[in-house]
């Protein structure tokens, strides 16, 4: 009976969750595999003995965003959910003026052609 609950979750609820994908592995017991941004495994949670309601509560407690309809947009604040922050921080924008910042070394006009290159 619980298997039918998991099947209902897979077919009806997974499409509503942002950043949740289903990979069918024939013969394997259903489990939730949590990955980080680099696709490294963080945890495995067996789902076989859970009801559909329990699985939905679990995903909510883990921070997964559930849409009302599968085609609904995901609000910007949930774009990286369930992760709390994106590992790809915005890079600082370059200063708008062409003058370098005071601490920025200015390259010399005449590079020394005899200089050693340590990166080769």
UniProtKB/TrEMBL annotation:
Organism: Megalops atlanticus (Tarpon)
Keywords, alphabetical: Selenocysteine, Signal
Gene Ontology CC: one annotated term: endoplasmic reticulum lumen
Region (Disordered): 70-120
Gene Ontology molecular function: any one: oxidoreductase activity
PANTHER family per record: SELENOPROTEIN F, SELENOPROTEIN M
Family statement: Belongs to the selenoprotein M/F family.
Domain Selenoprotein F/M residue range list: 5-64
Protein name: Selenoprotein M
Domain of life of the source: Eukaryota
């Amino acid at each position: 009976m619980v298997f039918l609950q998991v099947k209902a979750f897979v077919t009806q609820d997974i499409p509503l969750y942002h950043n949740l994908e289903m990979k069918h592995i024939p013969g394997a017991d259903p489990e939730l595999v949590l990955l980080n941004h680099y696709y490294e495994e963080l945890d495995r949670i067996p789902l076989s003995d859970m009801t559909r309601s329990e699985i939905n509560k679990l995903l909510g407690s883990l921070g997964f965003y559930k849409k009302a309809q599968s085609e609904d947009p995901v609000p910007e604040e949930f774009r990286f959910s369930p992760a709390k922050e994106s590992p790809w921080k915005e890079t600082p924008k370059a200063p708008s003026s062409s003058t370098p910042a005071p601490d920025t070394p200015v390259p010399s006009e005449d590079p020394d052609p005899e200089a050693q290159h340590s990166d080769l």
